[in-house]
Amino acid sequence: MYVEERMYLLHPGKVPEYFKLYESEGMAVQARHLPHMVGYYVTEVGMQNLIVHMWAYEDLNQRDACRAALSADPDWQAYVAKIRPLIITQDTRIMKPAPFFLARLKTMLGAK
Predict the structure, then answer these.
(1) Which of 25, 27, 50, 76 has its CA 20 to 30 A from that of 69?
(2) How far does Cα 32 stand from its chain's mean position?
(3) CB-CB neighbours of 85 under 10 Å
(4) pTM for the whole structure
(5) What's the CA gap between 77 and 80, in Å, rounded?
(6) Domains of the chain by residue range
(7) 3-state class of 73 per DSSP?
(8) Options 3.40.50.300, 3.30.70.100, 3.40.50.1220, 3.40.50.970; which CATH number does 2-107 get?
């Protein structure tokens, strides 16, 4: 199992607009294509205007297939065109859980 962490640094003051667009347009499209949302956050302490969200995948092949389907979705393309001007930088990490946490993560996500 792998967890992808995506971080978007937004222009100051743009977090509410980003969240409004995500709730009204982006979340439903992602739910059609991405299997397991682990979390979706905004920083409270530290670097401000930072959105962090995480997604779990059984393996990297599943991630590639899911991301390709999402990218090809016209609804996603329209949504991305709206949020792109709000974003300063994007960073992505793909992580493997520690062996002792893997079973717990699978249980949390209802995976086998």
Answers:
(1) 50
(2) 13
(3) 9
(4) 0.84
(5) 5
(6) 2-107
(7) coil
(8) 3.30.70.100
Residue 77: both structure tokens together: 């393309």
Q: Give the whole-angstrom CA distance, residue 73 versus residue 42.
A: 26
Question: For the chain, what is the largest distance between any 2 Cα atoms, rounded to a whole number of angstroms?
Answer: 41
CA atoms within 13 A on the CB side of 42: 12
CB-based contacts of 16-25 (< 8 A; 24+ apart in sequence):
17/86, 18/51, 18/83, 18/86, 21/79, 21/82, 21/83, 22/83, 25/75, 25/78, 25/79, 25/82
What was the pLDDT predicted at 69? 97
40-81 confidence digits (pLDDT tens)? 999 999 889 999 999 999 999 999 999 999 999 999 999 999
Give the pLDDT of residue 106.
Answer: 73
Q: Which band of pLDDT confidence, cut at 50, 70 and 90, is reported for residue 112?
A: low
